[in-house]
Structure formats: structure tokens, C-alpha cells
Specification:
By secondary structure, the chain is α/β, with parallel strands linked by helices. It is about 40% helix and about 15% strand. The chain has two domains: about 190 residues, 3-Layer(aba) Sandwich (Rossmann fold); about 160 residues, Glycogen Phosphorylase B (Rossmann fold, 3-Layer(aba) Sandwich). The strands form two sheets. It has a seven-stranded parallel beta sheet, with helices on both faces. A seven-stranded mixed beta sheet has the order 8-11-10-9-12-13-14, with helices on one face.
């Protein structure tokens, strides 16, 4: 009998973090994929990732609407609580042999609680990393609730073991997003027109001779500063007067300030070098990155996929604090002139040598094979 593996995707970035593993699970003769889409992955204002998921041919077993409006710490907590209630019913009905939760977004702990409290084996992907903010607390809490840990780096594996987990249940598979990055390295140039294919709003850019990508999310522990932070980056990008494709922020505490800052700046300043998108197919997004001059902002893609692609990255602020990084990353503060100078240097820099810090491009297949063969348990052996 096939093992039923329930994977919960709660947000736009989580899909690219798990897509190749979903494919491998779906194609594995001993596994049955139960895909649950929840949270902001269902909302149009955050890119409606569910459309891309369905277009990629993944059948969806359940949809969970759980996001409360407000984008502040209180609504984060309430969204998580609602997620526990709704996902508990989903797991009760689907009766999976194991549940997979992904990374560190605030609402992912709802998946972990709903599964572990019902004695369903819980697999956590991308544990053991450090970044600060609420993400790190959630990530380590997921680790302690999980029964099997599929991490992305050796540093992360060592940290999970130090947290008291059994070494044989902590496996470095690499990150599935690197599988996608490896896949698109065969495209030395962008094979689609971003404006024509994805629309968006803003300037009609002449991007063919060079452009940068910007993706900056609020920091949950600095949510009251999010508008101030995004304005520093907006002013810097406008001053650079270089074509920029800018992506909308995640749904986190502070995203209302980030979004308001973008809308206000767009209306008052009318920048001629910035075009804004909500979302993009994961492969197209990586093609866009691979053909760009640099990534600016604070997305983990700058430390993960861009390390493999060798793309120069200007990482702004504290969102990725202490996360493992390769030589492609330059860290700067929320300061207009610091961002300008670092971005000028990044644009002028040739690509770096590819780094396999987060994997070498076969994580999805590894994950599926592990899920098909490992002993699934929900009891901890105390090692500390």
C-alpha cells in the first residue's frame, strides 16, 4: 500500500521550496501525494500561488482559508490559531501516513501542531537554520515537534542535532529550490518578456540591456519600521535609475507598512525605472534572476538560489541575520546611500562561481526516496 504523504504549502515562496519534491513524491511508485494549499498561497493580493500550482498539474486535496487581515503580530497569532483548527480537520479526514511542513513562515507551526497532536509523523524541511526574528523561533519550534528532519546544509544538520534530535533522523538533502536553479542554468538569456507575460504595474521598462530584481519583505520583529525600511530601498533604486523588477512582499507583520510605502512612493514619485509584480511561476522567476545583474532586498532566495546561480546580492537589514551565505552576498543597513553604493558595485560585478552550500540540484528525488523508505514514527527518543 502506498504511503500517503500530506504536504502543506502556506505561502508563495514555500511552493518553490518544495516543487521538485512534490513532483518526485507524485511520481514515486510507493507514495501518494496529498497536497494541501493554505494561507496566503490562496490569496490574490499575494500572488495567488495556487494558480501556478494547479497549472503545474498538482491535484489539490484541500484548501484552507486561514489568513486574517491586518498584517500585524496579533493577526499573525490569530491566523496561526485558525490554521491549527482547520488543518486538524483536514488531517483527520485525509488520514495521511505523514505530514510535511516547510521551513519557517509563522503559520507553518499550525501544520506542526495539528499533525503532532494527532500522533501523525511530522517531517520538517529546512530546519536548523538561523535568521533571527519570529522565523527562527518558529523554525526551531517546528524542529522540536517534528519526527524527521530534512535539512539543507551541514551547518543546519549539526544545529538540529544539538537541539537534541536523533542524528539518524536528521538528513542533509539539500534544498529543493536548488533543483529548480540547476534546471534553469541552461537558459543563458531570458526566453520570455516579463511585462508581456505577467503584466504588473509601473514603468514600461527597457530591460533588455540589463536590469536588477528587488524583493524586500518586512521583518516581523521590526514591523513598525517596515514603511521606513522600504522607503530607503525605494529611494535608492530610483536614484540608481537602472531598470528594476520589484516583487510584492509576503504576508507578515509589517507587510501593510511595506505595501503602503510602495503604493505611496509609486503615486507621489512615479519612478520611471521600476515595474512591480505580485508573483511569477517559480521557473520563470529563477530565469529572471539568472539573467539579471543583481538581486536587491532581503529574500532568502539571495542566499539560496542566487548562491547556486552565482548572482551578486545586496542583502538589506536583519531578516537574514546569521543565515549561512556564500561569497555572492553583500550586507548593508537600511540606508539609501549604502544601498546605492552596494548595488552599483553588484551591477558592475561579474557572476561568482556557483556555490553548492544549499545543495547540488537533486534534493527532490532524495526527499521522495527517504519518505518512501524511512521508518515513520511519532515518538521521540530523548538524547539530551
Amino acid at each position: 500500500m502506498k504511503r500517503k504523504i500530506c504536504v502543506v504549502v502556506t505561502a508563495r515562496p514555500s511552493y518553490s521550496r518544495i516543487k521538485t519534491a512534490l513532483t518526485a513524491i507524485q511520481n514515486h511508485p510507493e507514495l501518494e501525494l496529498q497536497l494541501v494549499i493554505a494561507g496566503s498561497a490562496l490569496l490574490d493580493r499575494y500572488g495567488n500561488a495556487v494558480d501556478f500550482i494547479e497549472n503545474d498539474g498538482f491535484p489539490i486535496a484541500a484548501k484552507v482559508f486561514m489568513v486574517l487581515e491586518g498584517e500585524n503580530p496579533t493577526t499573525m497569532a490569530k491566523t496561526t490559531g485558525l490554521g491549527v483548527m482547520e488543518l486538524t480537520n483536514v488531517f483527520y479526514n485525509l488520514k495521511p501516513d505523514a505530514v510535511v511542513t516547510i521551513a519557517d513562515r509563522f503559520e507553518t507551526i499550525a501544520t506542526s501542531i495539528a499533525a503532532s497532536y494527532q500522533n501523525i509523523p511530522l517531517i520538517h524541511i529546512q530546519g536548523g537554520e538561523v535568521t533571527g526574528s519570529i522565523d527562527e523561533k518558529v523554525r526551531h519550534a517546528n524542529t522540536k515537534l517534528a519526527d524527521l528532519h530534512l535539512v539543507c546544509t551541514e551547518d543546519a544538520r549539526e544545529r538540529v542535532i544539538k537541539l537534541g534530535e536523533e542524528p539518524e533522523k536528521v538528513i542533509n538533502t539539500g534544498c529543493p529550490s536548488i533543483d529548480l536553479a540547476k534546471e534553469i542554468t541552461d537558459y543563458p538569456y531570458l526566453d520570455f518578456d516579463p511585462l508581456e507575460k505577467y503584466g504588473g504595474v509601473g514603468a514600461d521598462l527597457e530591460w533588455e540591456k540589463g536590469y536588477m530584481v528587488v524583493m524586500q519583505h518586512p521583518v516581523t520583529t521590526e514591523n513598525k519600521e517596515s514603511k521606513k525600511h522600504i522607503l530607503e530601498t525605494l529611494r535608492a533604486v530610483k536614484e540608481l535609475d537602472y531598470p528594476a523588477f520589484w516583487f510584492w512582499p509576503n504576508v507578515d507583520a509589517g507587510s501593510d507598512g511595506t505595501s503602503n510605502g510602495i503604493r505611496t512612493f509609486r503615486e507621489l514619485e512615479q519612478p520611471k525605472n521600476i515595474h512591480f509584480f505580485k508573483n511569477m511561476d517559480p521557473l520563470d522567476f529563477l530565469k529572471l534572476l539568472n539573467s539579471s545583474k543583481a538581486l536587491i532586498g532581503n529574500s532568502s532566495a539571495g542566499l539560496r538560489e542566487c548562491a547556486y546561480l552565482g548572482l551578486p546580492v545586496v542583502n538589506i537589514g536583519n531578516r537574514q541575520h546569521r543565515r549561512s551565505r556564500a561569497q555572492n552576498v553583500t550586507d548593508v543597513a537600511y540606508d539609501q546611500q549604502a544601498i546605492v553604493e552596494a548595488t552599483k558595485a553588484a551591477i558592475a560585478t561579474e557572476k561568482f562561481e556557483s556555490s553548492t552550500l544549499y545543495g547540488n540540484g537533486n534534493a527532490g528525488e532524495k526527499i521522495a526516496e527517504i519518505l518512501a523508505t524511512v521508518e515513520l514514527t511519532y515518538r521521540k527518543t530523548i538524547t539530551y
